[in-house]
């Protein structure tokens, strides 16, 4: 999604990620992290009695999954700026595989001349080609020489 400086990003740029399988462990870990332990996500007997017929992943997990799948290069990405038009189109069931598709919608240079607001449409698509989540993500992105730092896990 953000892999280069704002000067090199063009409206219409598209990126597609590798897939991720949504497992029970993945959903349970998210529930533990967030304390969102709704039985629709964790209890198969409860979930079977709902309109979904089986367990589904948290919507917030799917948003986070999209952000985890896309590339956000810290040499250029300065911060998350905003999120608009969020839609959960279909449930994501345990065992589903999802991949992200992103398309740059706008690049708006800021008055400082060193950054721009880059807005992309981000979508998650399941193994059947169905759209399950979409939203517009805005990021503050730096210029080519904005950060020349070594990036590593701490």
Automatic annotation (TrEMBL):
Q: Which N-terminal residues, if any, form the signal peptide?
A: none
Q: Where is the MaoC-like domain?
A: 18-113
Q: Superkingdom, according to UniProt? A: Bacteria
Q: Which family does it belong to?
A: Belongs to the enoyl-CoA hydratase/isomerase family.
What's the protein here called? Answer: MaoC-like domain-containing protein
Q: Which organism is it from?
A: Rhodococcus erythropolis (strain PR4 / NBRC 100887)
């Amino acid at each position: 999604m953000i892999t280069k400086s704002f000067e090199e990003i063009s409206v219409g740029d598209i990126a597609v990620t590798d897939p991720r399988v949504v497992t029970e462990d993945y959903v349970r870990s998210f529930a533990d992290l967030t304390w969102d332990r709704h039985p629709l996500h964790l209890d198969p007997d409860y979930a079977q009695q709902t309109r979904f017929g089986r367990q589904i992943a948290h919507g917030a997990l799917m948003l986070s999954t999209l952000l985890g799948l896309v590339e956000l290069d810290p040499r250029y990405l300065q911060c998350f700026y905003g999120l608009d038009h969020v839609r959960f189109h279909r449930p994501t069931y345990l065992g589903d595989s999802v991949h992200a598709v992103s398309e740059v919608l706008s690049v708006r240079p800021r008055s400082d001349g060193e950054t721009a607001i880059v807005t992309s449409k981000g979508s998650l698509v399941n193994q059947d080609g169905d759209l399950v989540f979409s939203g517009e993500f805005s990021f503050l992105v730096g210029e080519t020489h904005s950060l020349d730092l070594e990036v590593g896990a701490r």
